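=== Structure Prediction Worksheet ===
Name of assembly: unnamed complex
Input type: mixed (protein and possibly other molecules)
Chain count: three
Listed entries:
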Amino acid sequence: MMDNRQISPGPKAGYTVKRSLGTGRLEPILFTSFNTLFMVCLVVVTLYPFINTIAVSFNEGNDTIRGGIYLWPREWTFQNYRAIFATGTIFDAFLVSVARTVISTILNIFLTTMLAYTLSRREYVFRQPITVIFVLTMYFSAGLIPNYFLIKDLHLLNSFWVYIFPSMISAFNMIVIRTYIGTIPESLLESAKIDGAGDFRIFMRVVFPLCKPVLATIALFVAVGAWNSWFDAFIYTSSRQNLSTLQYELMKLLSSTMNSNGNPTVQNGVGMDQNSARAMVTPLSIRAAITVVASVPILLVYPFMQKYFVVGLNVGSVKE
Amino acid sequence: MGGKSKAMYKFSLIVLLSLSFTLSGCGGNNNNTAGKAEETTAAGTASANTEGKIEPFKVSVFIGAAGQQPTPDNKIYKKIKEETGASFDMEFLAGDINQKLGVMIAGQDYPDLMTGNTKLTAAGAYIPLEDLIEEHAPNLKAHYAEYWNMMKDPNDGHIYILPNYGVYNGKVNSSWYSGPAFWIQKAVLKEFNYPQVKTLDQYFDLIEQYKAKYPKIDGSPTIGFEILNYDWKNWGLFNAPQHLIGHPNDGGVVVNDGVAEVFANKDYAKQYYQKLNEINQKGLIDKETFVQNYDQYMAKLSSGTVLGMFDQHWNFNAAEDSLTTQGKIERTYVGLPLVYDESTKDYYRDLAVLNLNNGFGISINAKNAVQIIKLLDTLIQEDWQKTFSWGVEGEDYIVENGRFMRTQEQRDNAADATWQLANKAKAMFDYLPKTEGSFSDGNSTDAAAQPEEYKAGLKPFDKEVLDAYGFDSYVDFFSEPPANPVYYPAWSIDLIEGSDAKIASTKLNELQTKFLPKAILADPADFDSVWTDYTGQIEKANVKAYEDKINEQIKWRIENWSK
Amino acid sequence: MDETLEIDTVVRHPKKNRKKKKKPITWRLIKNQNQLIWMSVPLMLYIILFAYVPVWGWTMAFQNYKPAKSFGEQEWVGLKQFRFLFTDDNFIRVLRNTLAMGLINLILGFVTAIVLALLLNEIKKVFWKRTVQTISYLPHFLSWIIVTGIVATSLSINDGIVNIVLMKLHLIKEPILWLSEGKYFWGIVGASHVWKEVGWNTIIYLAAIASIDPALYEAAEIDGANRYKKMMFVTLPGIKATIVILMIMSIGHVLEAGFEVQYLLGNGLVVDWAETIDIFVLKYGLAQGNYSLATAGGIFKTVVSVTLLLMANGISKRLGEERLL
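=== Predicted Assembly ===
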């Protein structure tokens, strides 16, 4: 109630202030140009690292060591990408990654939203304890070895489902959705209730569709998280090549390049190829190519999701 | 833990499940026990006669380092499978080894063959190999005969790991020095007409003069001296003092008559850092040297503007490759074994040592240990060793008058990582027992060390430098190493994870990282006070525990390794 | 009062009548809510299994845990691990660094993300707006090793862009060796975080802004509110709930200052400012095979986190703002 009182006077106070005529015309133009300028700077600064990474990925490894690659490759090569695709394990791993990302995202969205809905109901008797139980999970971890035992006991070791089951609900996402549901006018839910709909029906028919903007966001979070994770593949499925994910394959490739370029035990032999001074992949160049291969597929999700932000607006106006 | 009954239930479930697995496993095994007898004889005579039926078997392998899955049709692995029946299911490490080992050990989830690791040994993950070798592996027995005692675990005297490097046969051709040295650009030596550089003072004099004469190289400011201290690559800052007093690389300690002492806080270390302080005053040390990362360091080296540094050769090898590609041969480096004064004999280059705790061990979960040891025994034979190191005759190398050689195309292939995945068994061979030095026919076991191969790679400028000094290769700059002390090297001593010794060594490391840059960059008037502060802190760090552990192990080695 | 709020279009928050007395839990109530129960209790059991059951592992913190031994064989050492952690000479310094960088990241992260969201919202051209959004979130996908590599190069005294620009602007006379001075280190880490994550952090606010009823803007416009007023009195209040909730959650994470950036950018000259709890625990815990110390470090962080979380939640409640719990 307090926050209501704090907000309400605001706009009213605002309405009474009449701007002087002089700034009226000029101010928007000034603001727009400053804003545009700011955005241009932002674009330059945030685009640079990515362009730089792409440039390095197309530059010869041996030449990259010299540094000084900024926006454009100095010595063009496809060698770095060739090295990535040479193993042939990449394509299978890509499919595994896609599968885990899609399944995780769908399950997460559905289950997390359902939970968030129940915990947004103020009259729900177990609301408080369940909320606390979930929120606390954000602040502790049992540790690697106990988790491993759990996964082992559940027979999820070396199984595809180890990518899915342990992370079906995120407390953070649940809270974000719950907060969002909190902004849906009670009246909408009330009217559904009067029509005799049960909670599950309200959730499916009313809440779920209304949540599209936030669900698009959460979908992005979950998808990016699932796509980028490699730790579970490293700990739980590393002895199964056919379950390896794209990120983990790339990780292996990167570490092996670093290894062969500077490991005392491997190079402990008496000779060293003088003739090896030729275009070859180096950690620096392979890392760049790996970054591009690993991130481009998932980068495409965001632009696709942006349209739901607009849908959100429409939903907002529909209920008028 | 509230749920004893639940745990019991789970436990019985697991028992049931694993039982069903073993049962089905047995079923599978049954029909190859018949073939096993055959297999035994086949393996025994594999080199002479491969007529016997070869039973295929799988070996699961954990390699505790990064690596890449070979292609499915890799020609060497195919050959192994055809001739011995063995195929490998390899798992490589990408990520933190401590995390991986933690869960492997906790869950007792071991594959058949694992690379050596002291944590796994301590956890009892390997089976003792002495009897197996005695009974089934005459070739391995002969291969390791000289080294038998050194391979024994200091804690219980069993042999768990078969070292992958450090067992030498025949003449050792050495043309490439991979170890530590003070490095100097060949151009600097040429400029001063190839002088003899023996001491630290002479070295920095040359650098100073050259920098004064050429303040810029290719338009960029000349950098006199670089010191890399980034992440675990800290020897550029830490290790020089022991060499300057004529000792070999023992890591963090200097060993005199079998007694080790930490040298980081000794006067002969102070002398080195004071010298660095002095040359820093002259502007010879790169201003950025202590804040740079490895990539920046390599970028500077490959730009050809850095005159010298203390480093291990393998660490900056890629920068030299880059310089060679750019055609700047004169900017590549010569390693110099510097000492404080000329009366000290340099001891940088050492005889190769047995690579303890590295190589393969057989895990307690391996069901076919005998089969595996027989396989390893087959693979140590000379024809297999040639296949591993040189490849297939006619395809990967040519033979002229009994000498192995490679065409330029074959050399290029051998250096191509992508080609290797399909045509080399690098991942396994790196860890398998291997012959080093030369084969019985006199060819070198390592293609790059074959004198003909080395000469083919030598550039005209290199010939000029070597001729000026009257050397055959850059290795000749270093004194011929004496026989290794029995205990050598102290750096391979396992300090035991989490022990006081290990904690003290971590602490010492921290203090060096923090104080040495401070001391070098300090105003000369303040140097002594920084140094006192530093040695005071080391005093507090319980380095005694570290020294004690090293000394205890040195003693053990002297008692057990002496022949 | 309720009546007026119901029709108040400015405030879309549902009635939050917190003073209402709690109904006692009755069978009737449970029966009425059986759908809610079916929708949430299984999920609660699921999270208990996956997050809480393994917490038996915290016993490790009181042991000298060796993975090769079974639970019964472990050696119990009481508070030894905690003592090692708290009595180390460096602990206070490490804690200070962690808190400082955590706080800097928290504040900078919040302010920049919200400001950027508000400014993005002012862009009228949809295509341009989406382009900026998409580009600004790109650095999130680069690993820290790449980002810190670029940061280090940019801060170099030879041809680092930062020194060049500052020299051109005559703000400095000589190039500054940024990474050699402890006093700059926290700022560099904070700025790197902003650079990498600002676009990503903005997304959640953009989603919240998207849900604001356009009618509110129209009404404000009719009343003659300018751009600034609309921002202050429509947009910000519209996303306030999201801001407050995220703030409470992040305060609990203030000790998560991380280790990668500090590890990758740090060096001997700034180590007194760069080392965080995570690095310390890594160095003396995991790297030594001492899982017990790592667990003890985790427990310490959890205790601090939950305390901070409860405090933030309590303060927010007292102020009448959104609460987490």
